[in-house]
Give the backbone structure.
Amino acid sequence: MKLSWSHVVLNVRDEKKILDFYTETLGFNVSDSGPVTKNGPNIIFMSQNKDEHHQLAIVSARKDEDTSTSLNHLAFRVESFDDVKTLHSKLASAGVNVLPLSHGNTLSLYFSDPEGNGLEVFWDTPWHVAQPEGILWDTSLNQAEALAWVEETFSNKPAFSKREDANGDWINRP
């Protein structure tokens, strides 16, 4: 199984200050934003690459008294659905708690390393879905069943389209 780098999500204290730094100083563009959950903190997705919905995201969830890192999670892309299934089996065998989430554009597994650092391993679906989205998916499904479930579950969401039709339109959204 080959892992390739995808994105990083940071918990931040001062959303405006960090957003200004990454957009004005480093040249990232905002691709999406919204609350993580109904009453949860805001998440802002950014990218410099039209082929990547986000390379960086920030979550306004860090408190001044926190002594932990600002890192939310590290994310890795895998090449096949079978890679996700194989990893899920390995994690389950090792007793690792896994949260399987689909964002519509991915089928993801969220878990922590032994020191509590958040990790995401995901496989891209053929669709683009405006973010944030996150719905539990059934890891017992085969690839065809999982893709049918994703399409049925997310087809009514904003900006749902075939990935190739989205053509990087998430960059510089108002």
About this structure: Helices lie at 15-25, 81-93, 143-154, 163-166. The domain at 4-166 is CATH 3.10.180.10 (2,3-Dihydroxybiphenyl 1,2-Dioxygenase; domain 1). The chain has a mean pLDDT of 87. The two ends are 38 Å apart (CA to CA).
